[in-house]
Amino acid sequence: MKTTKAFRAALTAATALIAVGFAGAAMAEDVTLEYWVYSDFAQGDALAMQQEFIKEFTDAHPGVTINISGKGDDDLTAGQVAGAASGTVPDVYMNAQSVGAQLVDVGAMANIYSQFMALPEEQRAQFDKDALASCMPKPDELYCLPYTGFGSMLFRNLTVLEKAGIDPTTPPATWAEWYDQMQKVKAAGMYAIPDETLVFNSIAEIYATTGNTETWGFDWANRKTRIDEATMTTVLQKFVDMVPLNTGTSRNDQATKDLFISNQLAFHTIGPWVNPTYDEAAKASGLKYDFVLIPGDTAGKTGGIRSYEIVAVAPGKNQELAFQFAAFITEKTQMARWAKLLARYNANAAAMADPEVSALPLIKVSVDAAHGAMEVAAPYFVGSIPSCYNSTVIDYASATADGDYTPAEGAKEMIAALNECMAQ
Amino acid sequence: MPFRRYLPHYLMIAPFMVLFAVFFLYPILSGLYYSFHDWNGVRVPEFVGAANYTKILASRDFSRAMGNLFAYIAITVPLGILVALGLALLVDSFTGRWSNFFRNAYFMPVVLPAFLAATIWRWIYAPNFGLLNIVLGWFGIPSVNFLNDTGTMLYALIAVDIWVSAGFNMVIILAGLKNIPTELYEAARLDGASKRQQLFHITIPMLWPVLFFVLTYGLISAMQVFDKPWLLTGSSFTSYGGRRNALLFPVMDMMGRAFGGVKFGEAAAYGFLLTIAIVVVTGVMFGLRAWSERR
Fold first, then answer.
1. Is A252 on the interface with B (CB under 8 A)?
2. Theoretical Cys-Cys bridge with A215: which of A211, A299, B66, B148, CB 3.0 to 4.6 Å?
3. Which of A199, A249, A252 sits opposite B127 (nearest CB)?
4. H and E: helices and strands count for chain A
5. Closest Cα of chain B to A402: distance in Å?
6. Where are the domains of chain B?
7. Which residue of B has its CA nearest to A422?
8. Using one digit for the tens of pLDDT, what is the confidence trace for B74-106?
C-alpha cells in the first residue's frame, strides 16, 4: 500500500515536472516582441513593408510574434520613459538620436555593444561609421543602431524663381547669392522663405550656413553651450535681414507648404519628408520644384542639419531576440528596400551605395546634404538636454529678429542664458 | 458596538475609499515625496530638500508662464462667463425646436476633441490662406499672423478657449435660468420694470450661486490650461510655448520638465506649486462667497 502511494506520488510529481517543463519550453519558444515605430512608418506602403520585414523574421524564428505600433514623436518618448519606470518598455523601438541620453538615463536602452560585436564583420561594416559612432558615448557602449536619417535641403519653387527673373538652372552657391535671390523674389511680390526663427531646427539650419558641429551643441564636461558668440552674431544678423522677406510661418506649418504649392513661396529649408507632399502637388497641379543643398557663407560650404532616427532595444529577458530583430531590419537588404520605398537616406552605407538606391535623386541630394550638414544636437548619448535649452535659442533668435536686441547683444544674452540653463 | 453597527456603512463606502486611496491619495502623497527629490522616474530618488521648488521659482520660464497665466485668466474667465450668459439668455428666449437647436449648436465645440478644435482653428488663423485672413482681406486689412505674432497670440488662444468653453457654461447657466420662478418676472413687469432692470435685479441675483460655480470652475480650469495652447503652437516635449514663449503656461512647462528634461522631481514640485495656487484661489472664492452671503 505504502509502495503504491509512493509510486503514485512519484508519478504525479514526474507528470507535474514534465508539464512544467513543456510549459517552460513553450514559453521559451512563444515570445511576443513589442515594436514601436514612428507613426508615418505605420501606415500605407511603409507599414506594408514593415509587416513584410516582420513576416520574414518571424518565419525564420518560429514561435516569435511581433506587434508593431505607430506613435508620434512625443508619444514615443513619453511611452518609453514611462515604460522604463513600470518595466514595460517596448522590446524594440525607434526614436530620435537627440533623446537617446534621456532614454539611457532612465534605463530604457540596453547596451548592445557585445551583441553588435557578435555580428559578422561584414554586417557590422555596413553601417555609416559616423552614424554608428554617434550611438557610442564610450568605446564599449553602444545604445542604438542608426536607422533612417536626414540632411536638410533647400526646396526651390522654380515657377517663383522664374517670375522673379532668376535663372533656376544654377542653384545659389553661397549665402550672398541666395540672399540676393531672396530679395529679388520679395521685390517681385512673393515670399522668399519661411520665418526661420520659429523652430529650433530651422535656426540650426541657418546657423550651419556660417558655423559647424564643433561650434554647436553641448560641452557636457563643463555643462555649457558650444555656440560661438561671433558665429551666432552673424547668424542673428541673417535673421534680421530675412524679416521683410519671410512668410511669418514656420517651416513646419501647413500654411508654409500651401504657399509653396501655390507658387507664392520660393524657398523651403526642410528634410526629405516633405517631398511626398510636393511630389503629389507636382502631379496634381503642376508644381515645378527641385531640391538642392543649402548654401553656406563660402562656395563649397553647405548649411542645414543632419540627424538619425535610431532603433534601440530594451534591457530584459527578450533583449537577445529583440537585438536580432533590430539587426535584421537594419541589415543592408532590408535598408535598401526601405530606402527605395521611401526615397529616404539611411545609416546603412552599403545600402546607400546600391546603384538602384543611390540613383534616386532625393537620396543622392540627401546623402550630399547629410555629409555637409551640422549635427543638430551633438554629442549624443552624453547628457539629457534640459527642457529650457531649445526654447532659449528660439526665444533670443525671435527677439533679435523682432528688434529687441542687436545681433551682438542677442548672441551674448543667448549664450549666457543657455549656460545658465545647462548649469541647472 | 458602534463599529459593528456601522460596518455595513463602512463597507458601502469602502469601494470608493479604496479607489480614492489608490488613484488619488497615493499619487498625491508620492508626488509630494518626489517633489523633494531629484528623480528621473527610474533611479533611486535623491533627497534635495526644497531645491526643486527654489529652482522653479527662480526660472525664467516659470516667470513667463505665470505672467501669461495671469493675463489669460484676467481676460478669459470674465469674458467667457459674459459670453456664456449672453448665449444662455439668447437660447432661453427661444422655445421648442429652436431652443434645442441653438443649445446643441453652441454645445457642439465642448464635445469636439481638442486636437480637432485646434486643427480647425489653425486653419482659420493661418496667414494668407486662413479663413479669418481671407475675410480681413475683403476689408483691405493685411494678413495677420495670429499664431506667431506675439501681439495677437494670447487673444487668438482666448477666442478658441471661449469658443470651446462657452457651450458648457451656457448649459449650466441655462439650467439656472430655468429655475428662476416666473412669478418674479411677472411681478416685476406689473411694477413696470424694464428688461434691463429684470436682468440686473432678478436674473443675475437669482443666478448668483450658478455664476459662482461657473466662475470658480472657470478659474480652476484656466489655471490648468494646457491642451489648446500646446496644440495651437504645435508644441512638443523639446520645444513648447510658441514664439517667444507667448503661449507658455505652467502645465506646459511642467510637462516639458517631466518628459523633455526627464526631471520628475522638479515636475512634481511644479505640480504642487500649481496645486497650492489653485487651493488658495478656490479658498478665496469660497471666502468671498461666505462674506457676501453674511452681508
1. yes
2. A211
3. A249
4. 20, 11
5. 10
6. 64-294
7. B261
8. 999 999 999 999 999 999 888 888 888 888 888
pLDDT 10s digits, A183-239: 999 999 999 999 999 999 999 999 999 999 999 999 999 999 999 999 999 999 999
pLDDT at residue A17 tops 80? no
Specify burial of residue A89 (Cβ count, 10 A radius: 0-12, 13-18, 19+): buried
Task: Give first-to-last CA distance, chain A, whole Å.
Answer: 78
Pick from B124, B148, B263 the residue to mutate for testing the A interface (most A CBs within 10 Å).
Answer: B148
Residues A138 and A246 in one domain: no
CATH of the domain at A343: 3.40.190.10
In total, chain B counts a number of residues equal to: 295
The contacts of residue A239 (CB under 8 Å, 6+ apart) are A196, A197, A203, A206, A397, A400, A401
Looking at residue A293, the DSSP 8-state letter turns out to be P
In a domain, A13, yes or no: no
Claim to verify: residue A85 and residue A120 sit in the same structural domain: yes
Q: What domain range includes position A229?
A: 151-305+384-423
Regarding whether A155 and A145 lie in a shared domain, the answer is no
Residue A158 in domain: yes
Alpha-carbon distance B51 to nearest alpha carbon in chain A (angstroms): 11
pLDDT of residue A29: 61
For chain B, what is the radius of gyration of the CA atoms? Answer: 24
End-to-end, the C-alpha distance of chain B in Å comes to 45
Q: Residues of B at the A interface (Cβ-Cβ below 8 Å)? A: 40-43, 55, 59-61, 122-123, 126-130, 143, 145, 148-150, 234, 236-241, 243-245, 248, 253, 256-257, 259-263
Q: Is the pTM of this model over 0.90?
A: no
Q: Establish if A256 touches chain B: CB-CB under 8 angstroms.
A: no
CB contact under 8 A, B148 and A198: yes
Residue A91 within a domain: yes
Residues A177 and A312 in one domain: no
Distance from CA of B197 to the nearest CA of A (A): 49
**Over residues A368-394, mean pLDDT:** 89
A73 contacts B236? CB cut-off 8 A: yes
A22 is a domain residue: no
d(CA B276, CA A139): 48
Closest Cα partner for A345 from A112, A131, A98?
A: A131
Question: Rg of chain A over CA atoms, in angstroms?
Answer: 25
CB pairs A-B closer than 8 Å = 108
CB A403 within 8 A of CB A237: no
Judgement on whether residues A156 and A263 belong to the same structural domain of the protein? yes
Count of domains in chain A? 2
* Whether residues A156 and A143 fall in one domain: no
Q: Inter-chain contact A78–B241, Cβ cutoff 8 Å?
A: no
The ipTM, to two decimals, is 0.75
A394 and chain B: CB distance < 8 Å anywhere? yes
Answer yes or no: do A402 and A412 share one domain.
Answer: yes
A140 shares its domain with A177: no
Provide, as residue numbers in chain B, all residues whose Cβ is less than 8 Å from the Cβ of A74: 236-237, 259
Write out pLDDT tens, residues A26-54.
444 689 999 999 998 999 999 999 999 99
State residue A5's pLDDT score. 54
